[in-house]
Amino acid sequence: MNILKRVQISLLVLVLPAAFVSAAQAQGPSLAEEMTRFLECYPVELVVRDQQNHAIRQKDVCLATIYHETGAQPLWVTADGPGTRAAVILKYLKNAAEEGLDAGSYEVEEIEALWHDPSLSSLARLDTLLTFNAVKYIHNVNQGEFEPYVVDPELFAEAGKQQFTPVDIVERMIAATDLDRFFRQMPPQNMHYRALKAGLAVYRNMEQSTALEEIERNTTIHPGDNDGRIPLIRGRLALFAGRVPNQDERTLYDDHLEEQILLFQELHGLQRDGLIGPQTIAALNISPAERVEQIRVNMARWRWQDHDIGEEYVLVNIANFRLYAYRGGELQLNIPVIVGQFQHQTPVFSDQIKYLEINPFWNIPPSIAVNEKLSELRENPHSLVEKNIRLFSSWQEDGIELDSTAIDWAGVTPGQMARYKLRQDPGPSNALGQLKFVFPNHYSVYLHDTPTKNLFTKERRYFSHGCIRVSTPVQLAVFMLEENEQSWNEAKIRELIASQKRKVLRISPPLPVHLTYQTAWVDKNGRIHFNEDIYARDKKLLKALNIK
């Protein structure tokens, strides 16, 4: 596992453009003298990965080194005060909350207090603050805060996955002819992140409304009922829909209100039954301020993902049990999926689907063989045969096929069981179904069909060992292959399936796939949805993001 090494900003020698150095030197020695007083160590926790070192180390390097080539001259201010580029930096620091970042983390108050102070000491201090906080902001908005990885490197393994070089960032800032455009391009530019950012602004506006009165959770309200809580529910729905709540005191649960409740349930991952029961009331009682934090958490997750998600790609939202396929920015497929159980959580990462298998074999992982199949065999030595699973002496190519009914399984240890290779042949009972979509990765996770179609009728679909089971795999296969030079269609794919022979079809070019965990997301109509936090990650992540 990649291990974190914690370092403070390592700002080494920065070679600035000659023209910039000359302009800086023209400011005179007095400001340079003041600059030297403020070139102290300004630490910010940035993280790089070190696979060789399991220790957490600190390395103190002075921020002063960034000014080495200027002869301690300022980067953003002159003796006349802060320049236009300084104003650009301040603008983005002040607006950090728009990106879901902690606006209090960038020393804005101190920067503004120094802004109009003409003293050389204040100007020197101002320049170093602008440099330090600009680097910190760019890191956080581009690659995400590293605190989650520090808090739990296993749970938030994807946080801050890329190395970050502050010197390079400052060089790019100085070289940028349009610094405002440079800052605008730092956050993820994909439509999913941008939509959440717009949703964040909407809920921040709601957050300014008066405190919400708690709706009592006692009896369930059915359509046609009269209930004293109805006026409060109407007002809450109006607030969440962006309307001004009126003073409607009617207590009847009428047809119009039922339509609003059904939509609310759809947008909040609840069963669309029209009943105002405990779960629906609990969702109605979640304040806009709490939703703001939930959106912030999910924006942070997008900063960890690959920023270039592609024009054509597959996206799985683990928390929503759905798979989406996009082409040219347009949604092509929206498919129910089954994801990993709580104890076998589906990982978050991006990769490329390189091929699909029709009528695949299932090589049963040793963990499943040890934890599940061994106990089944001890109770029923014919269980492998009954499921069309063959047994081999080892995982080597020269492994010998064995008769699983002739082995005394009571005497087989877990260690011995792990050395056996169990392979289920293609067929209607194969656990992978008739199609498997492969993107080789160290998690051994893939997309596949399943014979247990009945599970897709469940609201909460976390039943797998980590892989993603697809409800309509033929549709997905057509999406991947229909623009191939052979013009694959559903009829051709079903013909291959009917042959019951294994066949591998290459995906060319490979198709990006993004496994995400989003408890807040925006649909194609611009409506924000909130899901259940099925793996209980949000609170822990939010706590990490709010560490001061």
Task: Describe what this molecule looks like in 3D.
- By secondary structure, the protein is of the alpha+beta class.
- The chain folds into three domains: 4-187, no CATH class; 213-286, Muramoyl-pentapeptide Carboxypeptidase, domain 1; 309-361 and 426-517, L,D-transpeptidase catalytic domain-like (Beta Barrel), CATH 2.40.440.
- It has 19 helices and 19 strands.
- Strands 5-6-7-16-14-13-8-17 form an eight-stranded mixed barrel. Strands 9-12-10-11 form a four-stranded antiparallel sheet.
- Strand 10 (389-392) and strand 11 (401-402) form a beta hairpin.
- The longest helix is centred in the first third of the chain and has 24 residues, at 120-143.
- The chain is globular.
- The relative contact order is 0.11.
First-to-last CA distance: 27 Å
The helix/strand class is: alpha+beta
Rg over C-alpha atoms, rounded to the nearest angstrom: 29 Å
Helix content: 25-40%
List low-pLDDT spans. 1-26, 41-62
| Main sheet summary | 8 strands, mixed, barrel
Shape: globular
Task: Tell me how many strands there are.
Answer: 19
Q: Mean pLDDT score, rounded?
A: 86
Order of strands, widest sheet: 5-6-7-16-14-13-8-17
Counted by DSSP, the helix tally is 19
The structural domain count equals 3
In oligomeric terms, what are we looking at? single chain
What percentage of amino acids are in beta strands? 15-25%
